[in-house]
Amino acid sequence: MAASRKVEKLLNQKSKIERELRMIQENCIHTKRTIKQVTLGEGCQTSTRWVCNECNAVVGYPSEVELKNYMK
Predict the structure, then answer these.
(1) Closest C-alpha among 62, 65, 72 to residue 35
(2) Where are the domains of the chain?
(3) Order of strands across the sheet with 58-60?
(4) Residues β-bridged to residue 49
(5) What is the C-alpha separation between 47 and 70, in angstroms, rounded?
(6) Alpha-carbon torsion, ordered 67, 69, 71, 72, to 10 deg
(7) What is d(CA 28, CA 72) in angstroms, rounded to the nearest whole number?
(8) pTM here?
(9) Burial group, residue 48, by CB count within 10 angstroms (0-12, 13-18, 19+)
(10) pLDDT digits over 19-72, tens only?
């Protein structure tokens, strides 16, 4: 039973951290951003996105021109 309690405690902490992170990202004004490779979901796929430098939130998709400049 000790393992199940520890798992429950860890899941609660994870949930609390995810809520706090979501609140920080929602309140951020995303003034500075960088094009980065981000992992999508729980899988191994990556994609190129604009990411806020302050809160690490994904904030958009780069245009074709922006992607070409990024690849240089």
Answers:
(1) 62
(2) 2-71
(3) 33-39, 46-52, 58-60
(4) 36
(5) 13
(6) 170
(7) 29
(8) 0.79
(9) middle
(10) 999 999 999 999 999 999 999 777 778 899 999 999 999 999 999 999 988 887
